[in-house]
Amino acid sequence: MRYAAALGAVLCLAAARPASAAPSPFRANCTALAVVGDPRSANGARWTYASVDDGVPYALEGVVLVPATPGPHAAVVVSHGKSGSPYGYSSAVGRVMRGWGLVVIATMYSHAPAAEDAGNLPADHDGASAGNVLRAHKTRDLLSCFRGVDPARVAAHGNSMGAFVTGQLLGTYPEDFRVASQTSGGVADGPNATQEAAAEQITTPFQVHHSEADTTVPIAFADRLVSILAGNQVTYDYRVAEYPGYSHAQMGQDPAMMERVRQWYEDHGLLP
Q1: How far are the Cα atoms of 9, 201, 207, 209, 240 from residue 237, in angstroms, in the given order?
Q2: Which helix (H) or strand (E) holds 227?
């Protein structure tokens, strides 16, 4: 079944689940974080993180962009797609989101080009793998190492393989994000997509953008995710009709899509 957004309307369901518990505390060894550059500069700063936390070895890298205005700021973890990196897609989206007043942090995933991801840990397969979810959640925790971040106002956003990571992240840590959004992702049975069992655990208000013309990630993946959210009475916003004929590549940085994400974040208290 295609949802109301495919008919040019928006369907948002109010969550009927019990009130969520508080987000889990940030857990990061800030002495193991190295930052090169000024996070307030036009392109932000690059960072690396090397630590063994709770018995898990981490070797991460990425970007962080911080608004020039005083905090406290809400924040967002941005996840790139296949063959992307935090220095390309995530930085481009991040510059837009920083303009909304968000601290933006992004890391490299195993579906980046192999030469760029060499040595990063935990190692795992592409997309919604356990290793990538650990990378994403540790990136969320690294927000504690930057001044003026409100730990109760953290979002997640991903595109394509990064959308698969985002869905799996929300299902694995359902209390740790205020709101979320994705482009060109969803649920499927293969190893890279968000898994149905994880999607069943999502409680975070979730905005889903997809095109019927996407030949890389079939819209059936998004339909399946939204069906699960609807069945569990999770608040969602499914946007399809706004993207007639859009290719997979067009979705990720579409300006109108970004504006809809900004409004979604406002509606759910991430932004004022």
Answers
A1: 10, 17, 5, 8, 10
A2: helix 219-231
Sign of the dihedral through C-alpha 100, 105, 111, 116: positive
Average predicted confidence (pLDDT) for the chain: 93
- Report d(CA 64, CA 45) in Å as an integer: 5
User: Domain residue spans in the chain?
Assistant: 4-19+27-267
Question: First and final CA of the chain: distance in angstroms?
Answer: 35
CATH of domain 4-19+27-267: 3.40.50.1820
Question: Which tens digit of pLDDT belongs to each residue from 61-105?
Answer: 999 999 999 889 999 999 999 999 999 999 999 999 999 999 999
- Length of the chain equals 272
pTM of the model: 0.94
Q: Buried b vs exposed e over 123-132: b needs ≥16 C-beta within 10 Å?
A: ebebbbbebb
Is the link from the previous residue into 205 a cis peptide, with omega within 30 of 0?
no
Are 168 and 128 within 8 A, CB to CB? yes
- Written as one string, the DSSP assignment of 9-72 is --------SPPPPPPPPP---GGGEEEES-TTSTT-EEEEEEEEETTEEEEEEEEEE--SS-S-
The pLDDT tens digits of the residues spanning 236-265 come to: 999 999 999 999 999 999 999 999 999 999
Q: What is the CA radius of gyration of the chain?
A: 17
